[in-house]
Structure formats: C-alpha cells, structure tokens
Amino acid sequence: METLDFKRLAIQAGDIILDLGCGEGRHAIAAQAYFPDATVIGIDLNANDLATARARSRDFFGEQTQPYFVQGDIYRLPIPDKHIDHIICSEVLEHLHDYPRALQEMKRMLKTGGSLNISVPRAWPEKICWWLSREYHEVEGGHVRIFRAQHLRNAICQQRFRFKGRHWAHALHSPYWWLRCARWNQGEQNRIAALYHRLLVWDLLKRPRITRYLEQLLNPVLGKSVVMYFDKQDAQ
C-alpha cells in the first residue's frame, strides 16, 4: 500500500533514498522496485518490523538488488551531513514526541535540492478515531498528536524547505478505522470491520478500476492521510 506518489519524485540513477520509520518496508520496497538503480535504505527502531521488511524484500526481489534495512533512532542517525538525495517519512511524525528535532535531523542529512516527502494522518478523520477509542492512540507506540496540515507545512518550511505540493490518500481506509475504533475491544471479532478489511485487501491485490476511481474521487474529502512534498533550499 503506497501512500506517496512516486511519480512526483525526480529520482536519478545512483541517488540515495532514505525511508525513515520504514516499518515493515512498504515504501522502501516500492522505491527499490520503481528505481532499481537507486540505493534504498530503510531505518526503523522496531527490530520485529525490520525482520518482516527483510523477509518481504527477499520474497519480492530474490537475487536482485534489495533495500538495506537498518535499526536506528530517528533522532540520532550515523549518517553524514548532506548525504541523502531523497527522504521518505510516511505515517511517522504523529508517533514522535519531539517531531521538530526529527525534522532538524532530516534537514541535516539531506542534500541541498534533495526532496523531503512526508505523510501524516489527516486531522478530521483522525479526530473521529480518537473520539471513538482512547485505545487507538494510547497503545504503546501509538499516536501522540493530531496534525493540522497547514501547521505541519509551516513547521517544515521554517526549516528552509520549499513546499512543492500535496494530495490526500486512502479515502477507503477511513471508514475501516472508524469501524475498528467503534468496537476496539472486539479486535478481530468485530465482524463488520473484518468484512471491510477483506474488501480493502481485495482492492489492494486486484486494484479494480471502480475502487481506484472511487478512491480518487473521495480522497479530497475523505482521505485518511495527507501527503506533502518539499525540497531543501540553499542556506542563506
């Protein structure tokens, strides 16, 4: 499931792509598939997620070039200054208590002119989830804040990034999370949410035109994630 639109990334052969908070590897694997001549690095703090990412990568690429998956702390990364061409940070900042510090670290690592590509949960669908279930965001490693897109955009631009554009994603996923949150304690026993999840998996695997068109139509209104694209400007 890709949240970012990789067509917006001007990636060249030999570029280094860093997926911060890569989780189980969905964007790192997609980036390597789209740009086989790039070097892709996925970094996450969770060792179990990284093990899953490595296994999925082996299954997907076989003997071909694969992403590198490394355990690391987003606040303290052993990467030289101005070393990275493109940074992906998808659905991560809402988990961080000190997200401005993470933005500063991204700025440090990114080359001048490099791209910063960020997604976070959209404010109003996220507020409904919080209202329906405390457990949704109070679990270990859960969401610690709800971002207003304009506020986050301003915070990033204050770090001398230039805003290039935005879009919304995953409109069909918002109702699923509302259903889950409404009966959070039922977990997998929530039959309505389970049926809806089967629909989402079918859509992900088959990608029929009707659901692709429906999601594209609904994303500006119902999209669960907001995705924003920036590039790093020269220091004055």
Summarize the structure.
The protein is an alpha/beta fold and 236 residues long. It has helices at 26-34, 47-61, 99-109, 123-132, 135-138, 149-157, 173-182, 191-206, 209-222; strands at 16-20, 39-44, 68-71, 84-90, 110-121, 161-169, 225-232.
Give the uncertain stretches in residue-range form. none
Q: Considering DSSP H and I runs of 4 or more, what fraction of the residues is helical?
A: 40-55%
CATH fold-level label of the domain at 6-123 and 136-170 and 223-232 = Rossmann fold
* Total DSSP E strands: 7
The CATH class of the domain at 6-123 and 136-170 and 223-232? Alpha Beta
Output the helix-strand order. EHEHEEHEHHHEHHHE
List the helices and strands and how they pair.
Blueprint: E1 16-20, H1 26-34, E2 39-44, H2 47-61, E3 68-71, E4 84-90, H3 99-109, E5 110-121, H4 123-132, H5 135-138, H6 149-157, E6 161-169, H7 173-182, H8 191-206, H9 209-222, E7 225-232
Parallel strand pairs: 1-2, 1-4, 2-3, 4-5
Antiparallel strand pairs: 5-7, 6-7
